[in-house]
Design goal:
Blueprint (H helix, E strand, L loop, with lengths): L12 H4 L2 E2 L3 H11 L7 E3 L6 H4 L13 E4 L3 H14 L3 E4 L15 E4 L6 E4 L4 E5 L4 H12 L13 H6 L7 H4 L6 E9 L5 E7 L7 H6 L10 E7 L19 E10 L5 H17 L10 E6 L7 E9 L5 H13 L7 E9 H5 L13 E9 L5 H11 L9 E7 L21 E9 L5 H15 L37 H6 L3 H11 L16
Parallel strand pairs: 1-9, 3-5, 4-5
Antiparallel strand pairs: 2-3, 6-7, 7-10, 8-9, 8-10, 11-13, 11-14, 12-13, 12-16, 15-17, 16-17
Helix pairs in contact: 9-10, 9-12, 12-13
Length: about 525
């Protein structure tokens, strides 16, 4: 064990009982017992072999230099970790899956609390809800829920994303058009907070109308990670659940999926035919955004890529048990390609069991964890305009960016998502029909400026009519906080006059500030785009 500088800590009774909320002292003790299989908290420092891995996340642009990374395996250990960092005056950041797009877990951080070893998914009979620890990945959540109970959550498609940030930011995925956002099924959240005296404690907050901590639950339904405390676990039970058995408390996924991928060759396309594909797809999403649409069980992603990639694809999955599923898919593809004068190539079409479909490469994202990347986002309420199309075509065919490793993921959206009030959860965007992620990946650090410039200029030009960002209005509706974008705070790239927090949170920002003031009055949990305390 040479070179190991781990400091191990005993879980104390005092830490285990630093809990508020009805019944949570008993529950916390039980959770600590369930977590006992792991050896329990230790610090990884620069002297340890693991340090190089643990101070970086999925985006290799961001590598931190904290004094230590604290590995925790229970709620009480998380309380102790927060308290020690607060007492020592160290800046805290939390990491679960490590997929933060910006350097919120590296810049200026001295104590990283790593939740990855708290990754259990189980049924909490005391709360009558499914418990998902913050370090559980999307893949772990789906497999455990489905294999054990035949249920699921409408979360994301990248298997290595951790629950900690995904849920807090209002994550979405392939089942969201049918079942809503993952936070629409969130019953409660267990979180370490720090009060005005600097004391760390564990709080459980639920959506129950009588819960005095309900505002803390609400803030975690889209208010973003790293704002209010350290989430240790989430509790899920659908609000319309009609039974009492675990199998009746969350949605059931389709038994099977019809998956499909088609592609267009850039060699066949003109600006007009490319624009027709883009507009057709947007119009289809606009016309089929109702929760009652026969297409509510269809999820798709159009993925325009630079001309240097040679082609770009449209991937689709639809509930294969729907009557006429094959015809619904064919009609969808016909609508997207209508009037283009070109043909697409069918790359794949088959029916697979649901859990295998979750792992289908057409949707499983994330890519190579040794990459560097930059991402941006937008919600759209209507189809693309001529100006949008012109900007897309200009930048995807630029001769000075002959690079294939970039794309825009344009996801079909709406459905059940849009049946929820903009203020019922912290996710205000409840009338969009598409959700966009602009992203490029690379490895060579010396190319950072080249890749960043292309993506920034592309995005700026698409939204030139609203100050370079998708301001909430008739066509666009702001940005997705889980695709964090530091440029939204930079007046060189956001000339709209609309602040970054309004792009993320819309009408919910003032209420989120109130929650911040109540639950993190010392602003312990902060980063460059964390919710600021009210002035």
């Amino acid at each position: 064990m040479s070179g190991i500088s781990r400091r191990r800590f005993l879980v104390t009774t005092a830490a285990a009982t630093a809990v508020t909320g009805a019944g949570t002292a008993v529950a916390a003790a039980a959770e600590d017992g369930l977590s006992a299989a792991a050896s329990g908290p230790f610090d990884v420092t620069v002297a340890d072999q693991q340090y190089a891995d643990l101070v970086r996340g999925f985006n290799q642009r961001w590598v931190g230099t904290p004094d230590y990374v604290r590995m925790v395996t229970s709620p009480s250990q998380a309380v102790t970790a927060v308290q020690e960092a607060v007492n020592a005056g160290k800046r805290i950041a939390v990491r679960s899956g490590g997929h933060c797009y910006e350097p919120w877990v590296s810049d200026g951080i001295k104590a990283v609390i790593d939740m990855s070893q708290m990754n259990r998914v189980y049924f909490d009979s005391y709360r009558q809800a499914f418990a998902v620890e913050a370090g559980a990945t999307i893949a772990e959540i789906y497999k455990t829920l489905y294999k054990s109970w035949g249920v699921t959550l409408p979360g994301g498609t990248c298997p290595t994303v951790g629950a900690g940030g995904h849920v807090a930011g209002g994550g979405y995925g392939a089942l969201s058009r049918r079942h809503g956002l993952i936070v629409d099924h969130l019953y409660g959240v267990e979180v370490v907070v720090v009060d005005g005296s600097g004391k760390a404690r564990l709080v459980t907050a639920t959506r129950d109308a009588s819960d005095p901590n309900r505002d803390l639950w609400w803030a975690h339904t889209g208010g973003g990670g790293g704002n209010f405390g350290v989430v240790t676990r989430y509790l899920f039970r659908s609000p319309d659940a009609g039974g009492t058995t675990p199998q009746s408390l969350l949605p059931r996924p389709p038994a099977s999926l019809l998956v499909n991928s088609v592609s267009w060759s850039w060699a066949d396309l003109t600006e007009q035919s490319f624009g027709r594909i883009l507009k057709n797809y947007g119009t289809w999403c606009e016309n089929n955004a109702s929760a009652s649409s026969p297409y509510a069980g269809l999820f798709s992603q159009l993925k325009p890529a630079p001309k240097a990639a040679g082609s770009f694809s449209l991937t689709t999955e639809i509930d294969a048990t729907l009557p006429g599923a094959d015809k619904l898919l064919d009609d969808f593809l016909t609508a997207v390609n209508q009037g283009t004068g070109v043909s697409f190539r069918v790359d794949e079409r088959r029916t697979v069991p649901w859990l295998h479909g979750v792992e289908w490469p057409g949707f499983t994202g994330g890519g190579d964890p040794t990459n560097r990347f930059k991402g941006k986002s937008a919600y759209m309420r209507k189809s693309f305009t001529d100006a949008h199309v012109a900007a897309f075509y200009k930048h995807l065919t630029r001769p000075d960016y002959p690079y294939p490793g970039a794309l825009v993921l344009i996801s079909s959206y709406g459905g059940k998502v849009n049946t929820v009030s903009p203020t019922a959860t912290a996710v205000s965007q409840r009338s969009s029909v598409m959700k966009l992620m602009y992203v490029n990946f690379w490895r060579d650090q010396s190319q950072d400026a080249w890749h960043e410039a292309w993506l920034r200029e592309f995005y700026r030009d698409v939204y030139a009519g609203t100050g370079g960002v998708p301001v909430t209005g008739d066509i666009t509706d702001g940005c997705f906080v889980n695709y964090a974008d530091g440029d939204l705070s930079n007046p060189a790239w956001n000339t709209s006059g609309v602040p970054w927090h309004d792009l993320y949170y819309g009408v919910n920002f003032p209420r989120l500030q109130q929650v911040k003031a109540k639950w993190d009055p010392k602003n312990i949990f902060r980063h460059a785009q964390s919710i600021p305390l009210p002035s």
